[in-house]
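If your schedule permits, I should be very grateful for your opinion on a structural question. I have a record of one protein: its chain in single-letter code and its fold written as discrete structure tokens. Would you kindly read the sequence against the tokens and tell me how you understand this chain to fold? Thank you for your consideration; the sequence and its tokens are set out here.


***
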Amino acid sequence: MHSDLSPHLHTPECNQLINLLKKCHEENQFAKFIGVCNTFDQQVVNCLRKERQDQSRRNREQAKAKQLLVQERMRKFDEEKS
């Protein structure tokens, strides 16, 4: 099962793979159950995984920068207080 495959949530590369998978499912309504579209499915899974990993990396970087900013403000506050 995939996450939400709405186009606005994914990169153009993933959207292209998602469209190929959907097209394969439409063209192979019964054969899709025996693995005809598995190649496209695995490509979509890999692309979505890469997107999720990239987003996690960006979130960690932003959190680290924000934490450094907060620590700096706390340091300045402590210096002014003393």
In short: Helices lie at 12-27, 38-81. Residues 38-81 form the longest helix (44 residues).
